[in-house]
Amino acid sequence: MNAFEVAVLFAIPGFLGLMALELCWSKLKGPDTWQHQADAVSSISSGLTYLVLRTLGFGVLVISYDWAAKQFTVAEPMVAGAWLYALVFVWKDFTSYWVHRWAHANSFLWAMHLIHHSSEEFNLPVALRQNAFNWFSYGGLMLLPLALLGVPTEVVAVVLPVQFFMQFWYHTQHVGKLGWVEYLLVTPSQHRVHHAINPVYIDKNFGQIFCWDRLFGTFQEELSEEPPVYGITTPVRHYNPLMIELNYMGRLLRDAFTANRWRDKWGVFLSRTGWRPDDARERWPDPKRDYRDPSQTFRRSQPDWLILWAWFQFAVLLLTVAYTLANLELLSLEAKTGLLLVVLAGVAANSQQLMLGPSLSAECLRAGLLAAIAVNDVAALTLWGVWLLPLQLIVCLLSTAISWRLRSPAFRASPEFNA
Fold this sequence. Notes:
Blueprint: H1 3-28, H2 37-55, H3 65-72, H4 82-105, H5 107-117, H6 139-142, H7 144-149, H8 153-165, H9 188-195, H10 213-216, H11 241-258, H12 262-270, H13 278-283, H14 304-326, H15 333-354, H16 360-376, H17 388-407, H18 409-412, H19 415-418
Helix pairs in contact: 1-8, 2-14, 2-15, 4-5, 4-8, 5-11, 11-12, 14-15, 14-17, 15-16, 15-17, 16-17
């Protein structure tokens, strides 16, 4: 188990605790930033898909730091003291500012980052909306100077998850401006601006821990007369994090196939975010959301029992991911792959049901995966892992029953469906 997976296992209880605290504060003190429970389930499920596909090794890694350190180090390895951890942290945060800024500036890079901005809410669960499909990972290139100087791999392995998880806390509307801290660190106020689609706020405040924006001209203060409106200008309007993330890449591919000129076909991926060839724009117009119109905010109304079911199903999926990460070195490749794919199928089923639609295809996939694990790899499950299969089977059967109810004419004619 690598440093990131260890950090995840320690971070999960902390994240859950902070989200529970924000939920209670939101309900008791206001404003209620947890009204849209289905969106919260979708956001946290996005975090699960990120962990699953990262563990499965999905994506294109241009260069890893471990490989670069072995190939390009020209100095003697540095002593891993506290000062070195601090310097590596600052360098990582500095380069992350630029990686983040470029992710907003280029269409192909935006396809990976869009998922983080897709929620039209702003609360702690939104922090967990991360890109599961890592089409192109080049962060290691930004760390090459550290490799050249002989910074040990173990130092970078510790700093990266720490810097990443420290970005969680400021995704909230319950903390106001923080005085002099606003000049040094990224705060909730600054990050609310970053997630907003108001024209004055778009493409501002790219910093992650330190407020680099004040140095590089991308800072925008949160204005009392301009409350932030969250989301993306061309919304996807779905709860499935996989569908949200694939949607934009699908639109890029569609535009590339539609464009007549080769220059435009390549330009779809290499141009600034939002640029489209004229012929593709005419054939496939993208309706933009009017941020001034609250009626355009995406929200499906689910019955209370379905929200409770969605949280229960998510809890079982989270338990499965936590077990798999904790036992990566003990589980066979087939067993851990099967369990993680069960989680993806469960996320798809849960999301589809929150859209008030049946998820029978996802249930068939989940049942097939569970059967394969039971037949071939049940002996590989350790400790309490043997209980995951019957628990997942029960969830699968209940979810199938719920899908049948959601597709029934009686439900679709009921006030629950038409609310």
